[in-house]
Amino acid sequence: xxxxxxxxxxxxxxxxxxxxxxxxxxxxxxxxxxxxxxxxxxxxxxxxxxxxxxxxxxxxxxxxxxxxxxxxxxxxxxxxxxxxxxxxxxxxxxxxxxxxxxxxxxxxxxxxxxxxxxxxxxxxxxxxxxxxxxxxxxxxxxxxxxxxxxxxxxxxxxxxxxxxxxxxxxxxxxxxxxxxxxxxxxxxxxxxxxxxxxxxxxxxxxxxxxxxxxxxxxxxxxxxxxxxxxxxxxxxxxxxxxxxxxxxxxxxxxxxxxxxxxxxxxxxxxxxxxxxxxxxxxxxxxxxxxxxxxxxxxxxxxxxxxxx
Length: 308
Hints:
308 residues; single chain; 3-stranded antiparallel β-sheet
């Protein structure tokens, strides 16, 4: 038969032991206004088969209604945001960031060639979170895309290419400083420099092949003066003293030595304006390079603002 229990302290303590997680004040509130019944039932022990007494506590319908009402109350938006933030932090703490093959870095045709080279850099991200890695990958993509000569640019001359290579290297080093952990920055900078060196080597090869092709054409169709000029240019390329080579070397040195990038851009302008311009034949090329210089100057300013 059910035994009616009075709402004394002993009963409260008994109920609190059953309803795990309910505070003293809440438990007393339920007991003060609702009837709680205790019953003794027979339970068969699985091994011996004996009947054992077991006490149960049944919460009245009124108490259940109050619990249901409490659980149904809406959680404030601020609390929901705080809960979500906590879950995300817990997820980030328990899971290492994962390189996403859907990054633009890997899927943009103009940057995918360098993506495999820079994939190790993503694994060196100082802030070991997915968000930081995602930002690093996006920044790498933007720098490489902006450095592609002919992409949304005015000019794709060898002078513009020299500026692009120089500024791409400088911007990549800035990304390494921001995103890569200090103990990995030397290795990461080496990866950047090796990539740029590879692009310069490819450029040198194209310049040499172009100079040789010019001489071959001059021999076949040109005058003696044209042949002499083509031969002299080929000799300069082989010795590393041709104009495109000197421009690139000067720009890279200016970037390394300048106290700020405005000084480097000023040096770039000097290089362009000092281009040999016999009979004004190179003026169009000079004007195009100066326009390109302003494009790169704006890109650098945007880059610095975004990096801050």
